[in-house]
Design a protein that fits this description.
heterodimer; A: about 110 residues; mainly beta; seven-stranded mixed sheet; four-stranded antiparallel sheet; 11 strands; about 55% strand; B: about 110 residues; six-stranded mixed sheet; about 0% helix
Chain lengths: ~110, ~110
């Protein structure tokens, strides 16, 4: 069966420090991968999605970037974190055929001090 | 622009009462809508999708294109239904599916 792993579960970082959040999927090949941010009272905002290795689409301009170095690995990064980057980040995957739901990881709570 | 609106942040009911969580969408194409649920200390998971026309855990949702709504309903709420519920609209293109989420509604079912 397919599983998705996201880590770390929580992270506290100072302003200006770098960031790397990792997400991996097992049990499937060539998934679509997604990074969302969940802000209080604002639902989930799609940040990046990827349909294949090295293919990244950005949904909103921001201080973050994403990379997909391997088929089932999706990384969310920043060179210098801002206070506004605080939030709850969710990784998700779906089968590449379009008519399938997305499956979510446990999320990472990021606090910037 | 595509948008999903869940007007209620919190819905509080007593056990056995009917529940309706509202969702309205804005989309010029043919919509495909989902309800996701997040129980306490669990990950976000799919509850139901409109194309399946199914009932999951007693919940149903009917797509009303005239009113651009996809409200989630259950005739008799249970305490275990307490959770955060998100309505989502799928946008298709080039082999991917993107979800636009509403802000979510927290359902609290009291004994």
């Amino acid at each position: 069966s397919q599983t998705i792993h996201q880590w770390p579960a929580t992270l506290v970082q100072p302003v200006g420090s770098p960031l790397s959040l990792e997400c991996t999927v097992e049990g499937t090949s060539n998934p679509n991968l997604y990074w969302y941010r969940q802000a209080a009272g604002r639902g989930l905002q799609l940040l990046f999605y990827s349909v294949g290795i090295g293919q990244i689409s950005s949904e909103v301009p921001q201080n973050l970037s994403a990379s997909r170095p391997q088929d089932r690995q999706f990384i969310l990064s920043s060179k210098k974190l801002l206070l506004s980057d605080s939030g709850f980040y969710l990784c998700a995957w779906s089968v590449s055929a379009g008519n399938q739901p997305q499956h979510f990881g446990d999320g990472t709570r990021l606090s910037i001090l | 622009a595509q948008r999903v609106t869940q007007p209620e942040k919190l819905l509080s009911v007593f056990k056995g009462a009917p529940v309706e969580l509202k969702c309205n969408y804005s989309y010029s194409g043919s919509p495909e809508l989902f309800w996701y649920v997040q129980y306490s200390r669990q990950r976000l998971q799919l509850l139901l999708r409109h194309i399946s026309r199914e009932s999951i855990k007693g919940f149903t949702a009917d797509l009303n294109k005239g009113e651009t709504s996809f409200h989630l309903k259950k005739p008799f709420a249970q305490e275990e239904d307490s959770a955060m519920y998100y309505c989502a609209l799928k946008l298709m293109g080039n082999g991917y599916n993107k979800l636009i989420f509403g802000a979510g509604t927290r359902l609290a079912v009291h004994p």
